Amino acid sequence: MKLDIIPVKWSDEGVVMLDQRLLPTEEVWLTLRDYNAVAAGIRDMVVRGAPAIGVSAAYGLALAAKNFVGTTVVDLEDEIDFAADVIGKTRPTAVNLFWAIDRMKATFKSAKEQEKSVSEIKEILKVESVAIHDEDIEAQRLIAQFGGELLNDNDTVLTHCNAGALATGGVWGTALGVIRGAVDQGKHIAVIADETRPYLQGARLTAWELMQDEIPVTLITDNMSGHVMKKGRVQAVVVGSDRIAANGDVANKIGTYMVAVLAKQHGIPFYVAAPLSTVDLNCPTGDEIPIEERGPREVTHVRDIQLTPDNAEVSNYAFDVTPNEFVTAIITEKGVARAPYIESLKKQFED
Fold first, then answer.
1. Is-contact 17 56, C-beta < 8 A?
2. What is the set of domains in the chain, with CATH numbers?
3. Cβ–Cβ contacts within 10 Å for residue 26, how many?
4. How far is residue 59's CA from residue 6's CA, in Å, rounded to a whole number?
5. CB-based contact 155:235 (threshold 8 Å)
């Protein structure tokens, strides 16, 4: 059974998001009625995961256009530019955010050059945002197909963070899409999920998704991954990504780098699954990827429960960068890229 989870949707009332902060104990849907609310939803992690952030950004700009009450295309352009600036300041690491914003602005520019009316442009932007969402789901399906072929029957796969349907436009996911793809191909796959401190995406979201799909999953603490690899319990590691540099360096949830180093030490393949919208050819290496730092409360508390002494000094990097030498392959909707990534990733954009 594959549960078709769609974490963000367009509606006539606004952008509808599944509040992932409350999962798995509560399933609450929020209707966000303006672009400021969409920006807050992205920033506050109502929705998270690079592809889902990109879809949400596109919907936020479509909503900005829908709510525009002016009468001129010039004024609508100013509104779109302002909304894009607000949304663009929410999550700096996920390049899908900026990819979606640029695509929506390019769509507006094309409509303006064609001398479309305000009402026509509003509809064009809505249609484009829905197309971005539909294309993302199709990309996940292809990632699932290509990635599933890399896994063997009876493999146990370790994953870090949540790169499932909840982190994308829905249905498949990226890393979990690879696992779902293998299962669809008739293979028996089990999963070990890191809890993923401090936000516990693995414990709260990955375990929940896999249990919904009846895929065997065992939850472990983050500092247990080396031990289970050493015991021979892991045959492959599959993770998602928030930005991939042109040379194949990969930014993903904090802790991914440690998992990659451990996988190489134990001779375990380390796969990264992401759509091409996550690949940033304008970013030469991982050194240029901006790393988001979030507030200390995510570390000092679990929801309302305080874990640390008052006024403890906290560092809360949300992501780290795994150098390409630790990456066995990068799986996109165009296929499987292998080193040298500077060539294989560029070729996927040309195909």
1. yes
2. 8-137 (1.20.120.420), 142-350 (3.40.50.10470)
3. 8
4. 14
5. yes
∠ Cα 69 75 78 (to 5°): 110
Task: Find, among 201, 206, 202, 334, the residue nearest to 279 by Cα.
Answer: 334
The tally of CA atoms less than 13 A away on the side-chain side of residue 275 is 33
pLDDT tens digits for range 175-198? 999 999 999 999 999 999 999 999
Has 242 been annotated as catalytic? yes
Q: Which of 227, 349, 187, 208 is nearest to 280 (CA)?
A: 349
Beta bridge partners of 17: 8, 30
The answer to whether residues 84 and 107 touch, using CB atoms and an 8 Å cutoff, is no
Of 148, 168, 250, 159, which Cα lies nearest the Cα of 206?
159
Of the residues 136, 242, 249, 280, only one is catalytic, namely 242
- Neighbouring C-alpha atoms within 13 Å toward the C-beta of 46: 21
Structure tokens given for 80: 């779109």
Closest by Cα among 305, 328, 308 to 316: 308
Report residue 275 as tokens.
């759509």
Pure H helices in 89-170: 95-113, 118-148
Backbone phi, then psi, for 348, in 5-degree steps? -65, -30
Q: Which residues pair with 10 in a beta bridge?
A: 15
Please say whether the beta carbons of 289 and 245 come within 8 A: yes
pLDDT (tens digit, 9 = 90+) per residue, 254-307?
999 999 999 999 999 999 999 999 999 999 999 999 999 999 999 999 989 999
Burial (CB count <10 Å: 0-12, 13-18, 19+), residue 307: exposed
The two three-digit tokens of residue 46, written as one number: 């109502």
